[in-house]
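Why this split exists: single-chain examples teach little about how molecules sit against one another. For that reason, every record in the complexes split bundles all components of an assembly together and asks for one structure covering all of them. Below is a record exactly as it appears in the raw files.
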Amino acid sequence: MIKQLATRKSIATVTVVALAISVLTMGTSSAADATWNCKPTKAKPVTVRLIEFFAGPARTPLLNAYARQFEAKNPNVKVEIISPSQADSAAKITQLLQAKNVDIVEPAGAIMGQAMSAKQLANIYPYFSKTKGWAGLTDYSKFQAELYGKKTTYMVPNGYYVKAAFVRPEPIAAGAPAVLAKIKKGTATWADILAAKSSNTATSSMYAMRGARASFTQAIFIIRAYNAPDLNSGGYWNKSTKTSMFNSAKSKEALDLMMKIWKEASPAASVAWGYPEMVQGFVDGTAHYLIQDNEVIQIVDEKYAPFDSGKWIMAQMPKGPTGYAAQDVSGGGWSIAQSSKCKNIATNFLDYITTDPQHSSFARAYGVGPVTKTAASDPFFKTGAWAIYDKIGKDPKELKLDGSDVAQVCYGEFFTQADKDMQAMYAGSLSTTDALKQWATFWDTKCINPVK
Amino acid sequence: MFKSVGKVTKFSVLAIWFVFTLFPLYWIFLTSIRPVREVTKKLYLPQSNSTLDSYRTLFSQYAFGTYIKNSFVVAFAASAFVIFIGMLGAYALARYKFKGKSQIMLVFLVTQMIPGLIALAPLYLLLSKVNLLNTLIALIFCYVGGMVPFATIMLRGFLQRIPPELDEAALIDGCNRFTALFRVVFPVALPGIAATFIFAFVQCWNELFLAMVLIDSDGNKTFPVGMRSFVGAYYIEWGGLAASVMIGIIPTVIMFGLMSKFMISGLSAGIVKG
Amino acid sequence: MAASVHKLVRKDGKKAQNILAPLWFLLPALVMVAIFIYYPVLATANMSFKNYKLFDQSNIFYNGFENFRGIFKDLAFRRILQNTVLWVSVSLFFQFFIGFGLALYLKKKFKFSGLYQSIIFIPWALSGFLMGLVWKWIFDDNLGVLNDMMLKLGLIETPIPWLSNANWAMAAVIIANIWYGVTFFVIMILAALQGVPNEILEAAELDGCGKAKTLFLVIIPYIRPTLILIVLLRIIWITNFPDIIFGMTSGGPNQQTHILSSWLVQKITYDQDWGSGSALGLLMLCVLFIFTVFYLLATRLEKDSEGN
């Protein structure tokens, strides 16, 4: 653990150097900055605009309610919640940041890296660290908030997304009972997933593959499992060789297995599946085994069957040959736009929604792992389908990566390129060897190597 | 005998197309009344457990009342402007001979070839400069700009069908060109105008990409942008989507119902006779 | 017509005003078009010569023709080009002939023809993107009602991989597009048919023309200018219509169902590569422009319409 923290620190330093200019210019001057001293009056009311990435009926009404409460407590302040469809939110957030027309954003996916490189986010540490919201964060959340360097905060976590397996035990028990037992114990490996193809039926298959948007994330799961524990804290580099993990022979083994799982243990249709289709595939029984984030719990519960019914169970992600698995436990959060004209008011609102009970209701309704100490001790997050995350948290063989590599600027380009490569591999027009070579070169040349 | 064979062919063709057209809509309808957990069931008739829950969601969890109102305002205003501006342009192109006319036609035609998406970024910046972002007015302006060329070309075609003697007579009767156009030509061209209006209205009603980019707040969202909320990153809410499609059909179907009277009345034929 | 225009001109007298008059009428239209169409396009043209990726905004610079080169070098380019031609030609063919046939049938009123018309016009009333989603659902390999129906009717024994096989998926999106676009032709051709003066038809009948002869020798020549124009517009629109593909397949699997315009949508919304997207948009504009010029030369639209 101490070792891990040490590497984390070293990454943080590297990233700080990389972002030196922005840190220097934003970090120190904030006190004197007029945008941190905004005073709303009746004549000059202030509107704080917040844009969500993951808008939806489970959480948007809550945010709106918080906005109204905040307005009631702060006269002459208006909070506007912008809730684009999730299919467009990445584009919309980018657009608003570029147009300097927003105060608070939820920079998920590749947006964080891109917004950091464009210097669109403000360091709110000097102001935010004095709030109740900051004081209430768990240590890990504080660590996440300071991912870009000590005493710099570009994002305040608002929830954790942890990957786990959603499993339909019935068909697997019928076709591959031995694998089901291992899945339940948390010792199933990726090879077991392939072996469970014996549970395929005429209309259903074992594994919910992702073939469309963000398909490369599947490859990352398995490649990490094969390389772990020889991974840096961000999960894209081998500590032993100090180069990107895509160079290793294990990665090739892993990716070849993934292709086999796709060909033999996944529905043919999954080549066209993105996130919603995978979930749909699990809900309607086309696939028996789905690796997804925690917010899917609510969907499966609502659209398929309640968790109590026993029709589905939760399990840990499959492991590699060494018995390890690894995943990002970074998740989303809120950031203040550098262009915001009232950063103090915007940060006050952030503080308000990061404090309990507001945050804990938010995390419960939306189904994300909580970021505050009080919410983290809420039994809700330790029972039912949620119990699995407690198990994941305690399993030393499931490495928790901090998301520092995903936050790199190069990630945005990797994301789109790797996706195309993945689909080309599915179509058979690109070999796994060539794909890995390209990815390795990309990370070794275009990204910052934190282990060197 | 011959005639009845023709009739049988005619009505079978019409029937086949009818079924093909309606089946997806029927399927959407069935989806919209299924309980949430049975949305993907393949049952071809309404079941006893049918429910209006998906419809209720539109108005309880989402602000579809507002979206519908916004779409109406935008589509009506934009279409009306388009007809007005388009009529003026079409009149000039149909009735006058002048230098540069074919070039102007070309200017209009070329607009149809422009992939709409590439204009988005500059339009966004332009509208932000005049402080019109996130307003319905901005949408109306953009829609008018986008549809005027097509409307002008269409209306010109219709106006050419109207004998020039008609407006000449009006001019002799003391009208100027403007009043001749709107008092005399306009009523005669009504079928064409109605058709153009419907096209414009429907295009506005369904326009997604511009509205997605220009509108932020929930209170200013149009119907298609609202419908897009069902396409979550995690799950496509088929029930809600289906219900909104069913609701979205209503106004346009009513419009067609009302306007088809104009389109079928054969007014132009009557004028030539008279 | 030329003569009557002269009459109009003489009636008004002052000559200078007469040259300006049509321009005054056209001014509002031209202003709107200039601001909302041509200005943005010129601004975009500039962008097409830049490395302009939204996810890396610290790295924006002029890169000459690199974006254009990138498009031609893209491995998917050939397939996308083929798809575009297929998409336009097959969709247009069926949309036009089905639309024409229905319009002829609908011209003569029958019981409930008004209602029938309103109903078959419905597809046009729906948003292309959402209909894409609806069709995606109907065509879905596992959940889709189409495979289910065909299985139950015994037409097929195993489900057709409608959306996961690139060639089937192309067929699926084109079927959806035909469904969507027939209405346009029905409405347009019906409106044009209403414009055919009854005398002409009566005269043809008196001359002993059969139905087919009347159609080909009288009706079609009469509405030819309209037909030429709507076919041209339709070709351009279908080319620029990514909505259905975007909703149904998003260009997948493996970019094999993209057409140029859906590729453009992907470049802009997903890849966030505005440079490349703008370049592609400009290329499409050029191709369509050249096509239009040839089309108009071939059909001599000007001569036709001026002659009226």
